[in-house]
Amino acid sequence: MPKVMLVVSARLNNVALLQRQDGNNINYFFKCGGCERPGHITMIPGHEAPLSEDNSEEVGLMVFDCDGLLPTDYGFNGGWLATTMLGTKIYIDLGSHEGFKDVIDGMEVSITDLKGKFVPFRG
């Protein structure tokens, strides 16, 4: 079964770390809309890497085992945990195409220019 890695990029301002919230296991069962062929996509634990202000370009976020399907697009929906440069934790939904902007602890905090793509994983 082929494995793919979700590689993400974002512009972080006053964000020390950005990562998926704990407990977000992914195990999906799909059917192809055209041929009705079933397929499974399962996240493989142990490959998660957070984005940081110093490392926010092409970061390997998750690895998936794909049986019968290959993902093509990624949406930044669901729960994310951002930690500001002062250590404040923020639980956010990045489903908006505009990202996240707010003033926290007197600092402008933003997460913008979100991009994600799937690449072959050979690990």
Give an overview of the whole structure.
- Helix content is 0%, strand content 57%.
- The chain has 123 residues and is mainly beta.
- The strands form 2 sheets. It has a 6-stranded antiparallel β-sheet, with no helix packed on it. A 4-stranded antiparallel β-sheet has the order 5-2-7-8, with no helix packed on it.
- Strand 7 and strand 8 (89-93) form a beta hairpin.
Mean pLDDT over all positions: 85
Counting DSSP E segments of at least 2 residues, the number of strands comes to 10
Report the sheet with the most strands, covering strand number, pairing sense and barrel closure. 6 strands, antiparallel
Distance between the termini: 13 Å
Derived from helix and strand composition plus strand pairing, the structural class reads mainly beta
Radius of gyration: 16 Å
Q: In percent terms, what proportion of residues is strand?
A: over 45%
Low-pLDDT windows of residues: none
| Element pattern in H and E | EEEEEEEEEE
What is the molecular shape? elongated
State the oligomer. Answer: single chain
- Tally of separate helices: 0
Helix content: under 10%
Query: How do the strands line up in the largest sheet?
Result: 3-4-6-1-10-9
